[in-house]
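Thread: S-adenosylmethionine complex, take 2
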Amino acid sequence: MAFDSVKHQAIKSDDGSFTAYSTEFKEHYHSTKDGALHESLCKHVLPALKHCQDKDEIHILDICFGLGFNTLATIYALKDTPQKVHIYSPEFDEDLVRSLVDFTYPDEFIDYKDIIISLATRQKYESENLNITIFLGDARTFVRETDIRFDIVYQDAFSPSSNPMLWTSEYFKDIVRLMKEEAILTTYSISLATRIALEENGLKVYLHKGEGFRSATLASKSELEYERVDVQHKMSCNPQISSLKD
Ligand SMILES: C[S@@+](CC[C@H](N)C(=O)[O-])C[C@H]1O[C@@H](n2cnc3c(N)ncnc32)[C@H](O)[C@@H]1O
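Output below.
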């Protein structure tokens, strides 16, 4: 397969969709058990879009672009709605982005070939209702420097143990500054250190569980209709755990 390189190899996940393995981070891009498409939809896209269903225009921060599942699954989930969507996604692996023309995406993304080619070749796609921009560079720089305000943040970096710089309290301080008052953050991470970092930057933390996927986390400055995680209680039971720091 032309997509495969020294740094990443395509791997079939349990829902039949392909993800990839990063030899650099020694980690898969998605949970192979939840499945790449299934994980993207269940843990990120569907709860976030449900939260924003009354908005005419949605600004999304997709951390980080990777194989682009969260961006493409967002387009897929919104295909019958008139909502205007702007997606901004940092990604520092330019070779990966350029190789996506050769990646085997699930059938659900069959109509998005033009979008994928445009993103892989010029890191941009524009249509009447959809604007996507990939920023080739460090996500930390992007979140520090942008003045865009977001309705949705997909926090989908590699795990805190292999990519700690995108999970620190200082990083989340920048993320929270970019979130509108009613914005929602989605992440697969259920680690207490992540949840402490979210809460110490002013977010309320919620458990996101459902049929057919492992539990995840949602967070917002405002109240959500999900089970609130009692982070303070968990901290008192685990005093040795604290948020990651730069
Ligand atoms: C778990 S993958 C993202 C998966 C992606 N959301 C998807 O749906 O395919 C993490 C990505 O973060 C990128 N990355 C890691 N650290 C970064 C940083 N500091 N700035 C920009 N991109 C980074 C990696 O190259 C990788 O593509």
